[in-house]
TrEMBL record:
Signal peptide: 1-22
Name of the molecule in the record: Glycan metabolism protein RagB
Localization terms from the record: Cell outer membrane
Domain RagB/SusD: 274-600
Organism: Algibacter mikhailovii
Similarity section: Belongs to the SusD family.
InterPro entries in the cross-refs: SusD-like_N, SusD_RagB_dom, TPR-like_helical_dom_sf
Length: 601
């Protein structure tokens, strides 16, 4: 970390080390260079510095979407079943160690964000006392609050991911070499530190930013969501509920579920009413930079998920159980959104209404590319079967984070490996489901079941899914329900293994892994999933030229009754054996930090 921080060369955030020299010439300030003494003078300087903090938080190494989700039950780590070979496999197998590049890069990116945030916080606090205009003071306080949020959320990520929460704390600007060698702070101190930052942001940021030029800035709603999530992770349901209820009921935030779930994953739907915390990207700038450059304003996530013939590396694919869960999602048969136009004589077509039932639920179609999906086009506006090969035992791909709706191939971006799709870290549906968990207190409070089901059903109704609970109940009595009388425990099971993974798959910061860990079920989950067996059948279709064709081994089927010669899909066998709570629940301190910092212990 010391070497990383000392090598930061952002001119606006340079560190000036004072030296003692007898020669007056050597003590003169170079008028052509900015220094901390000449730069941090106005709110404009402060806002420029804040921009660099936001830019640091764009670094995709902070989220590590592929590694973090490979640690959970959501992913198969790429192609070449049953022996994948890519840099993310150690996370799936739970054989990672402190030398893993992703673990080191994540640590580096988080502390870079913290270092830059400290520049704004310290200098902003120095400046605010020199102002007399109340509007200027308020503006300065809001900039400090944004920096404190970004520092706070960075420390919450460190707390949740590394060394059981015990990491070095920096709340100052290092001025000498020894300042870079900070010891580990206890997990309790780290948690208290980042909660104080988030609370400051919650109290000092507006619910929304009125000026369109401020779109994408942190709001009080984002701070409330992260505070609530932190208390939920600690099973403090009462405290967590306070923040979630504020988001859900406070009209000043202007939050509402969008009608189309796909707007949460597309470029067209960015900064919508459901989005609470969103990392902004664009392919319109800095095309001269390498796609992986930390100063880039685009991201390189799309090719990780996209299929090979559409310019992707497909090193992250949905696990078999997840594919089946989406395939089997029950639709609300009373909802007209689940019926699409068809031609008389077409399979499943009602000759009276000339409509047929959707192939898959709206949520499934917007999340995965499944070979039989006739209702949601894929790359080049083709059906999924026409667009994608589904070969090499790859029966599904994630749509999330890919540009399937706007380009024919991810190779269309020049230079390669660029995407402008924003990453939604927190959205209202996540808050609804977390609040539902609070209401039933993790499965122990039957008194909160009805309210919790209303929140879950609001999320399900948006995607025209069959609702949970008894027929005729709740806010949508005319919708079809599963007609199950839930108690707190059974509703918690639904949240754990249906609603949260299917609504939020691959989203946020390690959401699924952290959910499984806090529920204490990771080992058990891997062991259960490793006993399941799947195989894939063929899919005949009409290609884009109008000719009959077949996608071989592309329809996943669960069961051990595969015809002779069929490949058998088995997930998480090695993860079930390898996972050890004391070793794999958290990342170790990266070896780069161990080597550089003599004061860790």
């Amino acid at each position: 970390m010391r070497l990383i921080i000392k090598n930061i060369t952002i001119v606006l955030l340079c560190i000036v080390c004072s030296t003692s020299c007898s020669d007056d010439f050597l003590e003169k300030t170079n008028p052509n260079e900015l220094s901390t003494g000449s730069f941090w003078k106005t709110t404009i300087d402060l806002d420029n510095g804040l921009t660099s903090v936001y830019n640091a938080f764009k670094n995709v190494n902070i989220l590590n979407i592929a590694p973090e989700n490979n640690r959970s039950d959501l992913n198969w780590p790429g192609f070449r079943r049953p022996n994948p070979n890519n840099q993310f496999v150690p996370y799936y197998l739970h054989t990672f160690n402190d030398s893993q590049p992703e673990i080191n890069n994540k640590w580096s990116a988080l502390y870079t964000t913290i270092f830059r945030a400290n520049q704004v916080i310290v200098n902003g606090e120095n400046l605010i006392g020199t102002f007399t205009d109340e509007e200027v003071i308020e503006f300065t306080r809001q900039m400090i609050a944004q920096a404190r949020f970004l520092r706070g959320i960075s420390y919450s990520y460190l707390y949740n991911m590394y060394n059981k929460g015990s990491v070095p704390i920096f709340d100052f600007i290092p001025e000498s070499e020894s300042d870079f060698y900070q010891p580990l702070s206890t997990a309790d101190k780290v948690k208290a530190f980042y909660l104080a930052d988030l609370e400051y942001a919650y109290e000092n940021l507006p619910p929304v930013w009125e000026n369109t030029n401020d779109k994408g800035r942190i709001t009080a709603a984002a701070a409330a969501a992260e505070l609530g999530r932190s208390y939920l992770y600690e099973e403090n349901y009462t405290k967590a509920s306070e923040y979630f209820v504020d988001i859900v009921t406070n009209g000043d935030y202007g939050r509402a579920l969008v009608a189309n779930i796909g707007d949460n994953f597309s470029e067209a739907g960015e900064f919508n009413s459901e989005s609470i915390l969103e990392v902004s990207y664009s392919v319109d700038f800095k095309s001269e930079l390498n796609a992986g450059d930390s100063q880039n304003v685009s991201n390189n996530i799309a090719r990780t998920f996209a299929p090979a013939n559409r310019g992707g590396f497909r090193v992250v694919q949905p696990s078999a159980w997840l594919q089946m869960a989406y395939r089997n999602e029950q639709m609300d048969l009373n909802d007209t959104r689940n019926y699409v136009p068809c031609e008389d004589g077409e399979d499943g077509c009602d000759p009276t209404t000339l409509t047929r039932l959707r192939t898959f639920s709206v949520r499934a179609s917007q999340t995965l590319a499944l070979v039989e999906d006739l209702d949601t086009p894929y790359y080049a506006g083709l059906t999924t079967a026409q667009s994608t090969l589904f070969n090499n035992d790859e029966p599904a791909y994630f749509r999330k984070y890919t540009n399937w709706a706007t380009v024919d191939s991810e190779r269309d971006f020049v230079p390669l490996s660029r995407s402008g799709i924003n990453v939604r870290l927190v959205r209202l549906a996540d808050v609804y489901l977390m609040l539902a968990e609070c209401l039933i207190e993790g499965g122990s409070n039957d008194g909160g079941v009805d309210e919790a089901m209303d929140l879950i059903n609001a999320v399900r109704y948006r995607s025209a899914l069959q609702l949970v609970g008894l027929d005729g109940s709740g806010a949508f009595p005319s919708s079809s329900h599963d007609n199950v009388a839930y108690n707190a425990q059974s509703l918690m099971e639904h949240l754990m293994y249906v609603e949260r993974p299917l609504e939020l798959s691959e989203e946020g910061h390690a959401v699924r892994f952290l959910d499984l860990r806090r529920w204490g079920v990771i080992k058990q989950r891997f062991e259960d999933l490793s006993t399941r067996r799947y195989w894939a059948d063929n899919y005949p279709f009409i290609d884009e030229k109008g000719d009959p064709a077949t996608r071989w081994n592309s329809i996943l089927i669960e069961g051990d009754d595969a015809p002779d010669g069929k490949f058998i899909y088995i997930d998480f066998e090695q993860a079930a054996t390898n996972y050890n709570e004391s070793v794999h629940a958290y990342y170790p301190i990266p070896n780069s930090e161990v080597t550089a910092n003599p004061n860790l212990n």
